[in-house]
Amino acid sequence: MRVLSGIQPSGKLHIGNYFGAMRQHLQLQAEHNCFFFIADYHALTSNPAPDEVAGHTLGVAMDYIALGLDTEKTVFWRQSDVPEVTELTWLLSCVTPMGLLQRCTSYKDKVAQGISPNHGLFAYPVLQAADILIFDSELVPVGADQKQHIEVTRDIAARFNNNYGEVFTMPKDHIIESVAVVPGVDGRKMSKSYGNTIGIFEPETSVKKKIMKIVTDSVPVEEPKDPDKCNVFALLKLVASPDELGEWDSKYRSGGMGYGQAKKRLAELVLDYFRPYRQKRDELEGNIDYVREVLAGGAERARAVAGKTLERARQAVGLRR
Ligand code: ADP
Ligand code: TRP
Questions:
Q1: I need a labelling partner for 56 at 20 to 30 A (CA). Which of 65, 105, 257, 316 fits?
Q2: Is 172 a catalytic residue?
Q3: Where are the beta strands (DSSP E) in 8-130?
């Protein structure tokens, strides 16, 4: 099956991104024909500094490769290296009702937060629809926050096909639900925009420090604690073996355990989990040319597919005849 997903280069990737999205992307490679890309056009909607766009794009590329992206099998590229997608965005825009975009909650949320929206932010879901449709994607693995964007994609594809004939494959979403929302060190959802993240590849001492500062309640050491209400336990669930997790569960419930003890073990487990990939990540840092080559090779393979779909769409609407 053709599987496609994108991730914005809007900051350094954190363990919430990994357990919430990247791990599943990487697992899908074994069985499917995967297309993964770095959504740098989308990142521009928040007007980041130019050096940040470039730096984070390479950072995300290195993270994915270090964590096991199969550069032979999987097509991996930078969105802006396949400009066909922006032309398709225009063709799709012309069948997209304003109301469809006005109803998008991610747009409404940003406006409610006081962000003065630009046209790019409003049109964001149309660019995302173009990303998906131009590669004849069948399955789009995304977090629950992106479900509406996939529905918008299906709606746009149906309108286009209805007007012009069967040009696009109808994609299915695949909501990644294997883990709940990963909490950040302050207990809110871990997110680049809250400054509460634990980076996948940040220095080990910094990971330890952050974990030791995770917010917990003030139940005294000797008293029983509820693991289901604890941010430290929520993170332990991601990295501890089932047996060990069971032991922590009993320690919490029986009392006599301080949170510091659980945090110390959590730090060890998080560092152990990502340690095998750190060396590869460091090697890539010293070999940026190789990373650029991977992205260029991916872009070439992606363009070959995108060009064909775009031509179909151009013909369908009456251009280039
Ligand atoms: P951020 O909130 O840090 O900016 P993004 O919105 O760029 O993260 O998310 C990229 C991917 O990572 C999405 O698929 C999203 O669902 C997933 N993700 C981000 N934060 C978390 C989290 N705290 N828990 C689980 N998944 C997450
Ligand atoms: N909007 C997605 C996010 O913020 C990123 C994205 C862009 C994407 N284009 C896509 C995801 C196409 C899946 C398919 O997470």
A1: 105
A2: no
A3: 33-38, 75-78
Residue 279 has pLDDT above 70, yes or no: yes
User: For residue 250, what pLDDT is reported?
Assistant: 97
Q: Tens digit of pLDDT for each residue in 265-278?
A: 999 999 999 999 99
Which is more confidently placed, 147 or 200? 200
Is 128 touching ligand 2 by the criterion CB < 6 Å?
A: yes
Residues 6+ positions from 5 with CB-CB distance below 8 Å: 21, 25, 35, 36, 140, 141, 142
- Hey, what domains does the chain have and what are their CATH numbers? 2-181+288-317 (3.40.50.620), 192-282 (1.10.240.10)
* Predicted TM-score of the model (pTM): 0.94
Ligand number with the minimum distance to the CA of 7: 2
SS3 285: helix
Between strands 33-38 and 172-175, the pairing is: unpaired
Which residue, judged by its Cα, is nearest atom 15 of ligand 1? 143
Distances from the Cα of 125 to the Cα of 2, 60, 225, 235, angstroms: 20, 22, 44, 32
Residue 177 has pLDDT above 80, yes or no: no
Question: Cα of 77 to ligand 2 centre, how many Å?
Answer: 14
Ligand 2 atom at shortest distance from the alpha carbon of 4 = 14
Q: Which residue among the candidates 12, 189, 251, 280 is catalytic per the annotation?
A: 189
**Ligand 1, residues at Cβ distance < 6 Å:** 7-8, 10, 16-17, 20-21, 142-143, 145, 181-182, 189-193
8 alpha carbon – ligand 2 mean position (Å) = 7
